[in-house]
């Protein structure tokens, strides 16, 4: 692969990572709003409190998963390409170093994207189950 192809793949993979992180941030905001709704819904009502509490716990677990997914995982201090790309603009390193580190960085960004999508998937599943529990607790 040429340098330009590796750079294009890296840029595309980084773009997907940014997209996933934006989805995580939006979903985190939405879930935080649901916690407020659940607390207000429970005020003055003694309906199925167990289902409401389980729903609230589920939403909290879902939020914890999303926060865990938003935490950075790449150790940039071990990646010379990262530092060469912004601190040493005039540094002349060989093409083999560029290729090797671009491949490594593409692999790392892809793994981080996959992990974040997995966290998001589990968070959505728990979130939907929590909403079902809240609906059961409210209307039954």
From TrEMBL:
It comes from the Bacteria. One of its GO terms (cellular component) is plasma membrane. Pfam families: PycTM. It comes from Streptococcus salivarius. Its main location: membrane. It is found in: Cell membrane. This is Pycsar effector protein domain-containing protein. The chain crosses the membrane at residues 20-39, 51-74, 119-139. One of its GO terms (molecular function) is nucleotide binding.
């Amino acid at each position: 692969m040429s340098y330009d192809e590796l750079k294009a793949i890296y840029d595309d993979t980084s773009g997907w990572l940014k997209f996933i992180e934006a989805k995580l941030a939006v979903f985190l905001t939405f879930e935080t709003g649901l916690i407020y709704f659940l607390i207000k819904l429970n005020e003055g009502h003694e309906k199925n409190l167990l289902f409401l509490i389980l729903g609230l716990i589920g939403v909290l677990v879902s939020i914890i998963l999303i926060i865990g997914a938003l935490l950075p995982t790449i150790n940039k201090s071990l990646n010379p390409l990262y530092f060469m790309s912004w601190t040493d603009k005039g540094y002349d390193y060989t093409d083999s170093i560029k290729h090797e580190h671009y491949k490594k960085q593409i692999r790392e960004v892809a793994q981080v994207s996959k992990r974040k999508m997995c966290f998001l998937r589990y968070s959505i599943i728990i979130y939907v189950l929590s909403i079902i529990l809240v609906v059961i607790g409210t209307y039954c």
